[in-house]
Amino acid sequence: MTVKDTSIVSHKKRVKSGINETQRQKILDFCRKHKMVTRKMIAQHLGIETATISGQVKPLLNAGDLTETLEKFPCPVTGNTVHWLQRFS
Description:
Blueprint: H1 3-17, H2 19-33, E1 36-37, H3 39-46, H4 50-62, E2 67-74, E3 81-86
Antiparallel strand pairs: 1-3, 2-3
Helix pairs in contact: 2-4, 3-4
């Protein structure tokens, strides 16, 4: 089995298990409690890898559930200047 095949199988398992929706809901809940957050802040709070958070945030941005700041601001976790996430509602 190739790496690509393994990734596809893993993705299908995640979708079937509902973990993607659960993680997205946790992200939205965290964003509701805070005016603006970074991906790293979410990852640190939820104990999930930043890459996973980024993968879960993308569909939320596409659906309009989250927005990203136009300007970049320093992340309190990393100190890097990044786009922050916002949820209105």
